[in-house]
Amino acid sequence: MSLERDAAGILVTHDLTEAQAFGDQLGIIDGGRLLQLGGAHEVVLSPLSRRVAELVGYGGFVPAPSAPNRWFAIHPDRIVLDAVPERGIVLIGTMLSTRPFGPRYECTVAERSGGRFTIHVDQPPGAGTECTLTALDPPVVAP
């Protein structure tokens, strides 16, 4: 016998993966203010502001040339080490450092426009190497 009930629940957590697994709506609260509310997947892929992007894991920002005072938000796990313009924005930078990160590597990249961000990759180029990478469909965020 199966019992089904419609029920609402609230989970307060600092763990994004846990929050996404728990429910279909995600609210980002910072300093006591609700910054964004929406579908769990939507909030992560389309943060409305730089602060929301930071809170859901985007670790770097580069200027968006077509949108003054806006930035492309760069997520460390949404990177391809190659030029694939049909999948996102192509960036050129210098690999500043590389260190083991679980089964992958965490690398710090200095992008030509002055942005600096971290990426997670399987096989990184060595430190000091110029690299071309694609940020996969990065959201454009406001201050």
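That was protein one. Protein two is written in the same sequence-then-structure order:
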Amino acid sequence: MPKVGIIYNDIKPVATTAAQKLSKQLKARGYEVLTTTGIAGILGYSQPGKPVCHTPVESLVPPGFDQDMSFAVVFGGDGTVLSAFRQIAPKGIPLLAVNTGHMGFLTEIYLNQLNDAIDQVIAGNCHLEERAMVMVRLFNEGELSWEALCMNELVIQRQPLTSMCHFEVQIGRHAPVDIAADGLIISTPTGSTAYSLSAGGPVIVPGVSVLQLIPICPHSLASRGLVFPDSEPVVVTSANSEPLVMVDDGNAGCYVVPSDRVCFERSPYSAKCIRLRPPDFFRVLREKLGWGLPHIAKPTSVELP
């Protein structure tokens, strides 16, 4: 019996209802259906003075979600999609993302397109796009204390009442550099249209094997954004006396103290996105962010005086 997974945002009634309805439809077509919420992929935040809760990335996979699963469907917004990929990427399960949120930059279809989309996926009339993910690990005195998969970006930043941050950053075998800023963003190509874009970083087309480092409000004119190969691991240490905050994809994180080392490298796991037509990143940029749209009407002809 073929197997399909459903992941949904149980805070949104529309997502819950859609998940229940799809489950019944797929079971009627002879599928084994496993459902779960996206909450397991939201790792939460550690607290100052308390041990960091180390959750291995492979342990986030929902029960029954394995290599035998044909595909999975997620109902929610971009946050739920990111959470879902943290749950299923270790098993390489393709994911069809259905937008029941707001922006839905990472989603493929809207709810009213679901029935036709499921028919196409079952018939094999779809495409698979792989997006790179990275592994983030926090080491304290050489011991692994926290880890997570990241699809968009890692942010290390000051707390609200602290002053400017001072970082030492080493990329691959190159000499370490010092950066003074409110924080650092280390982003994947997928995340280049998220926080790093708002912080002045470039848009990077998915499929390009690079990462980017963007200082947040740097203190020096020389501290500009940097794009580098994703084969180069990144190590960040803090030179601040106060703890900093590290956030992974906007919904999970922990504190970083001077004795910590944050290591960031490309993960062997990738996000496998189901596309109903060949991936067209520029179309998504235009539809979601208005990239390349004309701001004024162009004249059809020019009249000479």
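Helices lie at 13-28, 78-88, 114-123, 195-198, 281-289. Keep this in mind for the problem set.
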